[in-house]
Amino acid sequence: MKIGILTGGGDCPGLNAVIRGVVRKGIFHYEDDFLGFLEGWRGVIEDKSMPLNLDAVSGILPRGGTILRTSRTNPAKRPDGIERCAATLEKNKIAALIAIGGDDTLSVAQKLHENGVKVVGVPKTIDNDLSGTDYTFGFDTACNVVCEAIDRLHTTAEAHNRVMVVEVMGRDAGWIALYSGIAGGADVILIPERPFDIERVAESLRQRHERGRYFSIVVVAEGAKFSANAQSSQAAPVLQDAEKDEFGHVKLGGVANVLAREIERRTGFETRAVVLGHIQRGGSPSAFDRVLATRYGLGAIDMVHRGEFGCMAALRANKIISIPLKEAISRNRVVDNEMIDTVNGLFEKTANKQAVGD
Amino acid sequence: MKIGILTGGGDCPGLNAVIRGVVRKGIFHYEDDFLGFLEGWRGVIEDKSMPLNLDAVSGILPRGGTILRTSRTNPAKRPDGIERCAATLEKNKIAALIAIGGDDTLSVAQKLHENGVKVVGVPKTIDNDLSGTDYTFGFDTACNVVCEAIDRLHTTAEAHNRVMVVEVMGRDAGWIALYSGIAGGADVILIPERPFDIERVAESLRQRHERGRYFSIVVVAEGAKFSANAQSSQAAPVLQDAEKDEFGHVKLGGVANVLAREIERRTGFETRAVVLGHIQRGGSPSAFDRVLATRYGLGAIDMVHRGEFGCMAALRANKIISIPLKEAISRNRVVDNEMIDTVNGLFEKTANKQAVGD
Amino acid sequence: MKIGILTGGGDCPGLNAVIRGVVRKGIFHYEDDFLGFLEGWRGVIEDKSMPLNLDAVSGILPRGGTILRTSRTNPAKRPDGIERCAATLEKNKIAALIAIGGDDTLSVAQKLHENGVKVVGVPKTIDNDLSGTDYTFGFDTACNVVCEAIDRLHTTAEAHNRVMVVEVMGRDAGWIALYSGIAGGADVILIPERPFDIERVAESLRQRHERGRYFSIVVVAEGAKFSANAQSSQAAPVLQDAEKDEFGHVKLGGVANVLAREIERRTGFETRAVVLGHIQRGGSPSAFDRVLATRYGLGAIDMVHRGEFGCMAALRANKIISIPLKEAISRNRVVDNEMIDTVNGLFEKTANKQAVGD
Amino acid sequence: MKIGILTGGGDCPGLNAVIRGVVRKGIFHYEDDFLGFLEGWRGVIEDKSMPLNLDAVSGILPRGGTILRTSRTNPAKRPDGIERCAATLEKNKIAALIAIGGDDTLSVAQKLHENGVKVVGVPKTIDNDLSGTDYTFGFDTACNVVCEAIDRLHTTAEAHNRVMVVEVMGRDAGWIALYSGIAGGADVILIPERPFDIERVAESLRQRHERGRYFSIVVVAEGAKFSANAQSSQAAPVLQDAEKDEFGHVKLGGVANVLAREIERRTGFETRAVVLGHIQRGGSPSAFDRVLATRYGLGAIDMVHRGEFGCMAALRANKIISIPLKEAISRNRVVDNEMIDTVNGLFEKTANKQAVGD
Question: What is the ipTM of this complex?
């Protein structure tokens, strides 16, 4: 069977492990042939590809990025995009396509499926916010990178009696902030799910200071929002949604820099912002992510041979199962109240606030 | 409420995170006092302890080991052990005890519970083999350490055209070998659950060699066994159960060294053994383990205040729940056939063998 | 002999190793007593200190930051600062003082020396730019942190066909940029010693692109400057010296963000900036820095007992020697032309430019 | 100019960085062509090679091992070895050869040079024991790996009140043991340069125990020797020189296991041995080693074009210079008395012993 593979959207540690899992099982157990389309859907539209055999996937397991490269090209946004994809697949005699990507990539997969193409999806989101699956690969690696950075910042915060504000990934969901914040021993964790009152954050840091802790770590997800109804008499700063620069790139550091300035202004404590940015998504995957991504790959090639098209591999209760693509791309999985309450157990109660969110 | 804490058995990354989670929530939310007994049950028998307040648990989250130290002392094996434990607890006015440890430690907790002591358990096993709980802390860290070691060994194996045999922890269960073997891209993984036929292992390495891969990585759990009914005409080596030295310490490297010698003898490929040993259980915990261990700690202190004594915190479907100690200490959770079949998808089929086990 | 110790200026991996080296040799070999002044010179002015014995320095070797904390307080900038320092030292019967710090900290040490106080200095600059000494501790750790970050960014740059601009420490000297740039395989390295022509940087990236390398890494020291006489017809951007925010903190990311924008504008290649910031100076020191810092500590306590006051420990040809403080604090050691020429050997010649600097 | 390259002897982090440095400068600045001989001198004898262009060396900087692979094949030990090497070089029109390796590899280079072949050497020894050069690449990486392992072992030693004996590389010179021992905070360091008295080691551990330190770390180089004239009434154990197994491989763990047993027998303290073995020489090089190895590569290609044949690149006072091969391969650089005295400053004096060596 001749099978196409592509990786789309932002890169994520574990993509190569998925590709390797698919190709090894396909060759060793099903005698498949593989064609890797380059740079996500762009490679399908433009018919750019490379053959994928055992040599091609040898040694890629520990490597970040994706040997197929990636892009945010979305064929559904071009008039003839879907048709051109179907044409390329037919021309190359692709019997089935495995698309590895996030919401955007998989929504194209769903459209192709509706057009009769045999497609299987593998979910990818470093933010771990996909409904329908318990864990996505890349998230654990990102948490380890952030946690190690916070460990480093702890020693410098403590040496200088400083507040350090650390901005991490998470535009819509706070999983990375929450997990790496707990792991790094953060004193305040701010997530998109709970708009925060800047005055309460300041109060919480003052209270800690009074207990003799002269330094603090604040972890903030890039998508965290200032609360509109701040109790403070001073108006809360207003952050526009995801500021972009002249090239359309989202500007990082927006929330961290404003937050650091407001904290220093309100508490008088020396405060610095650190924006971790792209180092969170590159580099060698953790053991957990390598195993998880490999299992997704093994699951996806099995789905192809069981004819489960229009479906996506998912992790549930530590098993890889198959769920309809449609279901998966519908809704983000955000941090729930129960988890927030649990985590708040770690922190001192203040008059009217908990350390996570509001 | 005055609460005792102890850590028993082998050390494990995350023990300090559990202690910190218990103490922070206990002080911040329940106004508890804490006494830490030193060196596991030995501290209870001999009434050796230290007070645990916020200062004592500050900065311990990223540190391996346990600030309370540990031992394998088992009061149940001494005539008056259980009585002396009860007496120490009464003398110190301990209203409840949180015992963090493995089978052995928790079986003492169960005995004390049967004697009327209010005890809550937190499970600890780096091998991840406790029935009743989905994941135990320390396991993820161990897998990362082994995976990083295998990455290092890969480059040297490849440079020299060698077979490297890597012995990892796992006396009764092969989880560490299996997960770190997949994560490290091992070519053969040998686990206690499946006695292995040495001739088949050799055959599998020869087959790989014929495909032009002149180096291989074999991961073997310390408890893996040679199969009695080996198909080879040459008798299989016999390994005694857990060889011990004159001081009663289990000797590491038994299986790796015999295996390396047999592989070289049968294949003619230069083969070396590496025994990772104690580096697998020390050092700073991974982000995953810090979060998991913290959640176990938060769960345990809640159990104390809900009066769930004679019980143990457990992770099920990503929630911390409470289960009877008796249930938990009864049976080891080993690698199941379904998982082995899944993993075998990664490897070439040989005439009559798969890469994992037999 | 009763000896005082302090750490001043920005924190730096290895400070604890110096303290430990001083205290261990002092106690084991000279029967000294130690008093640690807190937060640099502030602790001397305000007479805040802690006793330093073997227990206090136990376990601090692998830890970043400084157990004595630090500050940028400069007594020489207060009318009675030097007198108050001398008074505190006398009051505490300090026979000699060991001051660990950079230019600023050591210039105070020199002033105290001129006022008759017995002072020995230990140089500290993460930028490795102190004349008089071959290597300073902390630099190697910073290079490893940056190098690991560049490794991570490489995979993401390659997956997305992007230019990544990485801003690293180095206000006056480009050592960190140069070393970590070479170690990380950067394609362009920009350092304060050589103002750069933005159009030549763009040209160099275009040339690489034409060779089929669709991604690039640009490492830029925070103090790198745009060249005034840029050959480009388009005016070069002007960067003010070390922009500061309302609290007087230097703003990071100035040069990286402007550079990224200019590169994308001139080449059309998608470009992103990453500002590593404070993670470069925190965390556990590398083996090299632990050894070097320990040797500085051992050297400093020997200098005290040999009566070499007004002097500083220095590394020359892999030996710790003693040089006058005055000499050491006079002049920065910058990257020399010979080193730049050597490194340029790694890069393609362009019409009129080399990859490092101009 | 057509230039051959090979890597011989044990693998070492940084080999790929040397190859990359040579090839990049050769192509970018001298318009050379390169042929890489495979598996050290074996590839020259058997005429096995691969072309080395910019693509071949792209992405290899952060990778351990060597893309040319390596072997211990020594042509000088075969009757017609040197002739066959010369013949292969002539057949391939190789104008000059760059040989990267240790004593053994470079002694062949010297022989070829004497036979009229144009050869330049690059020294490689992970043990850092080459006379004529201040530092060799790979050593820093090995020290970081050992130091990280000791950090891990520290937490487990402390949790269990154990003595941990850590065996590291170093058959003839104790540099790795000394540097990583200092960096890891070892309590006893045993090196080949100073045969040790086992009873004094035990006494030193007892003395530490009496100070309330119930755990200890002993770092021992694989080549460390028991002293013949041990003061103890109990005879010292005799270790044969470098025990070998039936395949001629040196057995690791000899000294560590005997030492651990003797320590436990003499002190009664629970003692465990850890043999780090091959993980010390594999994996990604440190930033320091990447820079150093790159500089060696740049130096070697310059030497070829300056016609400095029969010579080897060397590091002196932080500059790459050229020295005669003959000089370099003559004598090992061992740890000198001055360095041992310095390091002993860190340790408590015992009646008649210092912590390093005798």
Answer: 0.93
